[in-house]
Amino acid sequence: MRRTLMLFLLAIIMFIGCESDSNGLNGNGDDNLPIVTTATVTSITQTTAVCGGTVTDSGASEVTARGVCWSTSASPDTSDGITIDSSGIGEFTSTLTGLTPSTPYYVRAYATNSEGTAYGNTRTFTTSGGGGETCFDIDGNSYVTIQIGDQCWMAENLKVTHYRDGTSIPNITNDNEWYGLYETETGAYCEYDNGTSNVAAYGRLYNWYAVDDSHGLAPDGWHVPTDEEWKTLEIYLGMNPAEADSYGYRGTNEGSKLAGRADLWYDGDLEDDPEFGSSGFTALPAGYRDGDGSYYDLIHNSYFWSSSESVRSAWYRNIYYYYAVVYRYRYSKLYGFSVRCVRD
Question: Domains along the chain?
Fold first, then answer.
């Protein structure tokens, strides 16, 4: 009886050991191969993108080649498009070139040793479409643009300090004066924490009265998108019409598709989403200014005005660093949000 029990226990131990070996430590089913993970895809243009990875273990022998491979088909390998980014363990950055505009791609890191090649997790992204030209505001600020479906959007937040006709937009730094704009319905802008250090990356913040001002906030040939134009963008990126027409948290990955420039976001869940930045819209977490003048959420959240109003409020969009959806609702026109423009 005792011998039978010992043999039974030995069989279980051997089974567990075999199962562990078959799973492998690197996801490739072979512990002799390296362990590699794929980085987030960033800096997506019409023909290029930046990716990379991290080799955390070389396996049974030295890593002699590492990089990324990509294809328009799932599970790309080293017979597809490829970069070779040195050797050994550690982080590496790869630049993908020769891509086709408006095309979905799959990419994953690889690492090769004498035993073979291991692959990391697969990431997906879509190259930018048409557009690509630069537009300028009245102050001479330049903006990269991106064609998404039938719409051409700015791929940067507005930072202009004058209306289209040259009229100055008031820069309100005092909290009480900012709150007082609610009564006068005066357009104004501000800079996060009343400093210029974030303007280059995140743009400026505007109350909705500036959006609606008859002098014109957007550059010539451009306009602040309506709520319906925001919906058109969201539906093109995968949100269904019923979701687009609803409010609150909507969609599945549309928020991460709109986001971009991982280095400018807080290191939260959104950055780790495989769809991060895939549309080229490059939403930037510029935060917002409250009605009482306080500033919140820089590097955490994006807030964008639409030109569509609702009584003493207006429709807007919000993307959270920790949640890959798009939030839609109405908010007080007094708040300071970012502005993106779409071509007429």
Answer: 35-126 (2.60.40.10), 131-343 (no CATH)
Cα 173 from Cα 171, distance rounded (Å): 6
**Cα Rg for the chain, rounded, in angstroms?**
25
* Mean of pLDDT over the chain: 88
What confidence category does residue 290 fall into, taking pLDDT thresholds of 50, 70 and 90?
Answer: very high
Q: How far apart are CA 244 and CA 253, in angstroms?
A: 13
Q: Report CA-CA distances (Å) from 12 to 6, 15, 19, 31, 295.
A: 10, 5, 11, 22, 60
* Residue 2 neighbours by CB under 8 Å, 6+ apart: none
pLDDT given for residue 128 in this prediction? 67
Which residues have CB under 8 Å from 13's CB, separation 6+?
Answer: none
- The pLDDT tens digits for 299-321 are 999 999 999 998 889 999 999 99
Cβ neighbors of 220 (< 8 A, separation 6 or more) are 164
What is the rounded distance in angstroms from the CA atom of residue 151 to the CA atom of residue 266? 29
pTM for the predicted model, two decimal places: 0.66
